[in-house]
């Protein structure tokens, strides 16, 4: 009986020895290493999945689950990116519309300024031309002052009405009266009427 117990003990000893000498220390070591790696921020789960994916029988389950999750994450990210891009496009379209409106307003302002400048230039040219004519008529009227009334009247009758009126305008009332007095009565009357109309317009 004692021999039988000793034989059973000897048979169990290799199993217990294997359990306590190899399995327990390996399990303890794995647990300790896992805790240390987790504490340092290492993705142990990802590493285990990666290693499991390399095992032929297990890889199909791991790959299928991870693939589904990765696809969901990718879809979510893609939708978010599309929404962001749509929002950016809308914002850029609004900015473009605002800038086009601003450009149109500036173009209208430029056209108005160009028209104003052109009008001012034309007015100034007219003023300059009128002043030049006036100076010419002043200079010419001096000649008429020194001229004989009959001669002056004859010349004025032959001139264009506009020129004759401008010269008469530069003469004083007395000289003008003398010249009109010796003129043909019809011409003198017409010149006088036109002269008075011109004075009224001014």
General description of the model:
This protein is mainly α. The chain has a domain at 147-201. The protein has helices spanning 2-39, 44-53, 56-146, 149-158, 161-170, 173-182, 185-201. The radius of gyration is 58 Å and the shape is rod-shaped. The N and C termini lie far apart (155 Å). Pfam families: MgtE_N (PF03448). Residues 142-193 form the Magnesium transporter MgtE intracellular domain. Residues 117-132 have a biased composition (Basic and acidic residues). The chain crosses the membrane at residues 15-39.
Sum this structure up briefly:
Residues 142-193 form the Magnesium transporter MgtE intracellular domain. The protein contains 7 helices and no strands.
Spatial separation of the terminal alpha carbons: 155 Å
Number of strands: 0
Question: What is the average of the pLDDT values?
Answer: 77
Note the main sheet: none
Order of helices and strands: HHHHHHH
């Amino acid at each position: 009986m004692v021999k039988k117990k000793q034989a059973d003990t000897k048979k169990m000893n290799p199993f217990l020895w294997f359990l306590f000498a190899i399995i327990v220390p390996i399990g303890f070591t794995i647990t300790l290493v896992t805790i240390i790696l987790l504490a340092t921020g290492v993705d142990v789960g990802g590493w285990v999945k990666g290693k499991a994916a390399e095992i032929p029988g297990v890889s199909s389950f791991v790959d299928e689950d991870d693939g589904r999750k990765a696809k969901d994450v990718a879809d979510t990210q893609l939708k978010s990116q599309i929404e962001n891009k749509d929002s950016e496009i809308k914002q850029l379209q609004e900015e473009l519309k605002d800038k086009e409106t601003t450009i149109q307003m500036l173009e209208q302002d430029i056209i108005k300024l160009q028209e104003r400048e052109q009008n001012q230039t034309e007015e100034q040219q007219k003023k300059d031309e009128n002043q030049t004519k006036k100076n010419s008529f002043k200079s010419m009227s001096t000649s008429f002052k020194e001229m004989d009334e009959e001669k002056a009247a004859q010349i004025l009758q032959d001139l264009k009405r506009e020129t004759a009126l401008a010269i008469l305008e530069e003469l004083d009332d007395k000289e003008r009266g003398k010249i009109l007095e010796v003129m043909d009565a019809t011409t003198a009357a017409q010149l006088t009427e036109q002269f008075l109309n011109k004075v009224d317009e001014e």
